[in-house]
Specification:
There is one protein chain. The protein is an alpha/beta fold. It has two domains: 114 residues, Urease, subunit C, domain 1, CATH 2.30.40.10; 308 residues, TIM Barrel (Alpha-Beta Barrel). Helix content is 30%, strand content 23%. The chain is built from 15 helices and 19 strands. The strands form four sheets. Strands 1, 2, 3, 4, 5, 6, 17, 18 and 19 form a nine-stranded mixed beta sheet that branches. A four-stranded parallel beta sheet has the order 7-8-9-10, sandwiched between helices. Helix 1 crosses helix 2. It is globular.
Length: 442
């Protein structure tokens, strides 16, 4: 039995001595996993038999399906000084993510077939995580003219969104839902009413008043969400609400699901870890859109995760160059990186406090987000892609500014202690973390 670091491109092998976590079945067991021709061949308890192929020692680590992130910003094309598809895919596998969906607020935006094809080519050439483009819902993300959905989906787009901005009018939102439903893809909405956001830079409340910063009321998010849910009553579309941050939004989605509407929703790790009280440091990495809200909102998000109102967690990985964040708080762009810390934040905020067991927490970043997008990922079923994350859920570590594979380091978790560390990531049967380490050494 060989150590995983001695993997040399074998097409048929077994990873033994691991604790298998299968979130889709809610089970955890000590066992082994067989891989053949980039697919999962078997998942079995106990030790492998002598007749099995080359056996690698998993070192007692936990093994789960590779993580799935349905909301990342890879910045390329147009903003390569912040992130590239290659560096973003490297950050993904460093964090255990084997599949990521990239948002269309690039330059040019992902509103042409050629841009979708460009992203897929770049991702394939990088050879790390699988990248699924999310196309712009409207041309240029301007909210005026629908995109060419047939061409975009045919090229490989898995959803539509104008993320970074909402679809501005009810009429256009209706058209987006109608046409997206024809192609069986979800419409991912950035829920915001810009007229309510105005010049706000943080959650409107006690701390915005105390800090003298313009506030963003919760209804900025909730008004747009409520509008879309009313439209959804008339159209059988797949509607996904991105990055929920407020108690009111959780209530709206919960009520819509009780009424049988086809809505799904996500939140992000920073909304689970921080509250607006943390902005008293004026750390510009905590400037997020929608903003980090109050403690009651944070608790509502935990409740929404527990009862299934919120389907999954997405990093909303949003890289910015250092000089862009080294300004006054109200001058900084919104967003923070998250691919390399998301898993650890889930362990720290959900598993260790007892809000969820390990399988429940991992379901939020495996089969449930994969189901929202309809992509082949997030399971340990026989014949599924051999995408795995191997990790130690108990390892304690401190997030360091210079410890990221992302091209940017705008993380609000720098200097903070988290639990849970990804050790190896396997994509289509390949131990890609070996190439990741070699790339870092160059």
């Amino acid at each position: 039995m060989r150590d995983l670091s001695r993997w040399q491109g074998e097409r048929e092998y077994v990873i033994s001595n691991v604790i298998v976590v299968d979130p889709s079945r809610g089970r955890t067991m000590k066992g082994h996993v067989g891989v053949a021709d980039s697919k999962i061949d078997f998942v079995e308890p106990g030790e492998p038999s002598a007749k099995d192929a080359q056996v690698f020692d998993g070192g007692g680590l936990h093994l789960s399906p590779g993580f799935v992130d349905i909301h990342v910003h890879l910045r390329e094309p147009g903003f390569e000084y912040k992130e590239t598809i290659r560096t973003g895919a490297m950050a993904a596998v460093a964090g255990g993510f084997t599949s990521v969906a990239c948002m269309p607020n690039t330059d040019p935006p992902i509103d042409e077939k050629s841009v979708v094809e460009f992203i897929l080519r770049r991702a394939k050439a990088a050879g790390f995580a699988k990248v699924y483009p999310v196309a712009a819902a409207t041309k240029g993300r301007k909210g005026e003219v629908l995109g060419e959905y047939y061409d975009l989906v045919d090229a490989g787009a898995v959803a539509v969104s104008d993320d970074g901005a909402p679809v501005p009018t009810a009429q256009m939102a209706r058209r987006v839902m109608e046409y997206a439903s024809k192609y069986g893809i979800p419409f991912i909405e950035h829920c915001e009413d810009p007229s309510a956001t105005a010049d706000g830079v943080m959650h409107e409340g006690l701390y915005s008043t105390k800090l003298g910063l313009s506030g963003v009321p919760s209804y900025s998010e909730e008004v747009c969400l409520a509008r879309d849910l009313l439209i959804l009553k008339t159209i059988p579309a797949k509607y996904h609400a991105a990055h929920l941050s407020s108690r009111g939004s959780v209530d709206l989605v919960r009520d819509a699901k009780k009424k049988g509407l086809p809505v799904t929703a996500e939140t992000a790790p920073h909304y689970l870890y921080f509250s607006d009280a943390d902005l008293q440091t004026f750390d510009t990495n905590l400037r997020i859109n929608p903003p980090i809200r109050g403690e009651e909102d944070r608790e509502a998000l935990f409740a929404g995760l527990k009862d299934g109102t919120i389907d999954c967690i997405a990093s909303d990985h949003a890289p910015h160059a250092p000089q862009e964040k080294q300004v006054e708080f109200d001058q900084a762009p919104s967003g923070a990186i998250g691919l390399e810390t998301t898993f650890s934040v889930l362990i720290t905020t959900l598993v260790r406090p007892g809000r969820a067991n390990l399988a429940e927490a991992l379901s939020l970043i495996t089969h449930r987000p994969a189901r929202v997008l309809g992509i082949p990922a997030g399971t340990l079923e026989r014949g599924a892609p051999a995408d795995f994350a191997l990790f130690d859920p108990d390892e304690e570590w401190v997030v360091e500014r210079n410890g990221f594979y992302s091209k940017s380091n705008n993380s609000p978790f720098i200097g903070r202690t988290l639990f849970g560390k990804v050790k190896h990531t396997v994509v289509d049967g390949e131990l890609v973390t070996l190439r990741l380490q070699r790339a870092a050494d160059r």
